[in-house]
């Protein structure tokens, strides 16, 4: 097994559970791949803002959700708008889970009541259908799917585009409706959450009991042989490459590498009491007018207190693309000031994560079950083989292991 991200760990766990011997080779100093958490001055910093939805079917099968000690976010969003030149925060949420926000949700200026109800029906029907049925529907872009569902331009521009841009990591909503439908299904059925001790708790749980060899970067892969950078070689009946897409494309030239979606996330320590931000609630905040660079911002420590020292808040803010200049960070502070209604000049920048390949693109038409067997005992796994999500990574790992076993070999 090459790679100890979610896909590689899921594949290894499945194969071990079927009685096969597995060695996982990982080039970095810890498991997790793109899901890592750093400990900095008492803060937990996920490498890029991410959330975990316990409604992912594969996660329910392979993870101990109770052990993750999931801390839920509000099942909704706070939308920042301008009313007569003044900042206005509008709160919308699933009334089943946030009954106190029902009136705000019903009266939010997000389009006509008919448009809102039609979108609600569309989202509900996604939740009631099976993933297989959703994958078999004719594919169009997410934007076209929303329009066909009856969402008007006001609802799209003030809520759906700002919100979904943070999920897809692209603002034009050219992502496949097949992924949109799966996203809506998971949001209706589950509440986005954070593990109490950071997102890396997910891969660490998967790695328990596995033979993972860290700091073992792989130079090349051939049928039944893996060569490490240091010259050492390993023989195997089957090899599953479960790395990031670009590394997979380098090791396995026949693997198509999807276009990259990039993101930059900043973490701040604000100089205000935690309860003064978002009224102390763990809610995703988006700008309905898109006045600045940010996709969204949130206070992770409102959901999971261990993310920050006692009495201190941690603010996460994310923007599309690679943004690493001082001027760009100033624009982020300005935008944060508008979104929180606060002065941000003295907020301490704790860290910035620039992730050039955060997600594989999922354009139309999307094949949600791309081949994992390459022949000659070689297999590939990763979210680029299914959907760009935790669910997709976990499923792809299982599929690759199943394929290797079915073809009479062990990873």
List its traits.
411 residues; four-stranded antiparallel beta sheet; three-stranded mixed beta sheet; 19 strands; 33% helix; 23% strand; globular
What do these coordinates show?
- The chain is α+β, with helices and mostly antiparallel strands.
- It is built from 14 helices and 19 strands.
- The chain has helices at 6-17, 57-62, 65-68, 102-107, 113-128, 131-135, 142-148, 153-168, 177-189, 201-207, 245-251, 300-303, 326-340, 390-406; strands at 23-25, 37-40, 43-46, 70-72, 76-83, 86-93, 193-195, 211-213, 218-222, 225-228, 233-235, 239-241, 260-269, 284-287, 294-298, 315-320, 348-360, 373-375, 378-380.
- The strands form 7 sheets. Strands 15-16-13-17 form a 4-stranded antiparallel β-sheet, sandwiched between helices. Strands 6-5-14 form a 3-stranded mixed β-sheet.
- Helix 1 (6-17) packs parallel to helix 10 (201-207), helix 1 packs parallel to helix 14 (390-406) and helix 7 (142-148) crosses helix 9.
- The longest helix is centred in the last third of the chain and has 17 residues, at 390-406.
- It is globular and about 70 Å long.
- The model has no long low-confidence stretch (mean pLDDT 95).
